[in-house]
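Researcher: Structure for this, please.
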Amino acid sequence: MKAILLLEVFALLLIIFPPSAQAQTDELRQATGLPLQIGAAAVYGQVTMKRLEKSETRPRAHVTLLEGGTQLERVQTNDEGFYYFRNFPRSTATLVFEVDNAEVGRLVINPGASRTIRQDITVDWQEIKKARASVVDLKRGVDAYPRDDAGRKVLSEAIRLGRDNQHGQAIKILTDVVTKDPKDYVVWTELGTLYFQAKSLDSAETAYVKAIELKKDYFPALLNLGKLYIYGKQFDNAILVLSNAAKSKQDSADAHHYLGEAYLNAKKGSLAVPALNEAIRLAPAEKAEIHLRLASLYDAAGMKAKASGEYKLFLEKRPDHPKREQLEKYIRDNPIK
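Model: Predicted structure, token format:
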């Protein structure tokens, strides 16, 4: 599996409070290059790469807009790092930020009375590179599947090509590897990830399934097949696979998090809540935004005191959140019992 998909959330979020309507519109025009009216409905912002060396190629950044766990739209930032969504739901939504196809953070947004919302993020590129290197050492340095030096070089080259978005070349190299050694479940997983990134979803599924057939508890293949099923809205399949991922690596916050999202999308909220809470328990800081997810669920169900409890826990971890006053008012209006 590509190391970048295993990264922990290392990004530092820098949220910018909304400027005036005129300033917002000017910035939005800069982001879109379109003649937009003052007060136009949009969510937009800028992804800034901190500590990116001048000699380094700027990594690709994407932002995804989710509503209730369902992807509404995914866009790549422009040359200046701006992204925008011209239409967004009136209810609570989530922005997911990715760098080189690795998630680095997510934020819940509440449109409220404002029709124009700015949400910026600053990413420490050197931290992401360090995390990527540590994952490579952990996952591949111990040789999850035995291979000689030549085989390691081939695999490393394919990973590099995939990281540079040269998916076709990387896929060809790894296809040659599994043709010679069809039992290499690590390479089958890598192939699945490359196909997934190239949006060849059927081929990605086939590769992940092959890896799991060869090693049924191989966590990277289980986790990413589960993500693939969520992406394809095959939520029952996602639940099955991610349940096995959580059993395979019980201390994985990501496995429990994605399992919870799969349950939610399958309308099985009573099963989603324990999975999401387990993700928080395993990674309380990194998964703090799940408190907002749970609060929204409780609020929609009329369980406002429980929603207040989740908001309180979230603010303890994110005291500088821009909507702190709004959340504190909710807590005051709906006392925790």
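Researcher: Any notable elements?
Model: The CA atoms of residues 51 and 125 lie 6 Å apart. The chain is about 50% helix and 15% strand.
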